[in-house]
Amino acid sequence: MGTAAGWWKWESGLVRKILIVTGLIFLGLTVVITLKPEPFLKFGLPGVFVFNMLSGPGMFLLPTLSTKMNVVALAFFSALGMAINDSVSWMVGTNGEEVLPANKKIEKIRQGIQKYGPWALLAWSLIPFPYDLIGLVAGYLKIPYLRYLIPTFAGKFLRFLAIASGAAAMFS
Questions:
Q1: pTM of the predicted protein model
Q2: What is the mean pLDDT of residues 49-59?
Q3: Longest pairwise C-alpha distance within the chain
């Protein structure tokens, strides 16, 4: 366990457990906020931003909060928080092959990013897909951070705006 790679493998079990527990906590908070949003509303849009920046399931708050907040601002702050959350994957990916072993799925993503550039990132960000893998590959390819962040934010913003607008129209 003297090598850096050995330390990473040794630590990955602990890190994985911490991430799973944290994810379950935020998933539970998402359910609680969805069922009873009033206490969360006092945090307003900064609360939405922080919640989405720290967790992945914040998207599921959109239908509930869209009837209580400005839809455009809700989508904007949700997308900004999620784009920053996804930046962690980009940063990890910059460590290269230690983190991202080559396989067919990675190669397909790499080809898409190299062929279509930010348009590929925008398209993948539009769909409800675990975006972490995309961020890892973008970091691995050394895509400049802003060239990664802007299409990631734009795609999430458009998706969240559609979800929040649809929910507001249905439930208002």
A1: 0.79
A2: 81
A3: 60
DSSP per-residue codes, the chain: --SHHHHHHHHHHHHHHHHHHHHHHHHHHHHHHHH--HHHHTTHHHHHHHHHHH-SGGGGGHHHHTTTS-HHHHHHHHHHHHHHHHHHHHHHHTTGGGT----HHHHHHHHHHHHHTHHHHHHHHHS-S-THHHHHHHHHTT--HHHHHHHHHHHHHHHHHHHHHHHHHHH-
Tens digits of per-residue pLDDT, 156-167?
A: 999 999 999 998
Which amino acid does the sequence have at 121? L
Evaluate whether 169 touches 62 at the Cβ level (below 8 Å).
no
73-95 residue pLDDT tens: 999 999 999 999 889 889 888 87
Asked whether the CA dihedral 96, 108, 143, 154 is positive or negative, the reply is: negative
Domain boundaries, the chain: 4-171
Q: Which of 3-12, 70-79, 88-97, 138-147 has the highest mean pLDDT?
A: 70-79
